[in-house]
Amino acid sequence: MTLRNKKILGCTLLGAFLLVAAFASPLLAQNAVSLPSLKIALEQADKPQQVSVLLQILFLLTVLSLAPAILVMTTSFTRLAVVFSMVRQAMGTQNMPPNQIMIGLALLLTFFLMTPVYQRIHTDALRPYLDEEISQEEALKKALDPMREFMFKQTRKKDLSLFINISKTKKPDTLEEIPTTVLISSFVISELKTAFEIGFLIYIPFLVIDMVVASVLLSMGMMMLPPFMVSLPFKLMLFVLVDGWHLLVGSMIKSFA
Question: What is the DSSP code (8-state) at residue 1?
Answer without folding.
Answer: -
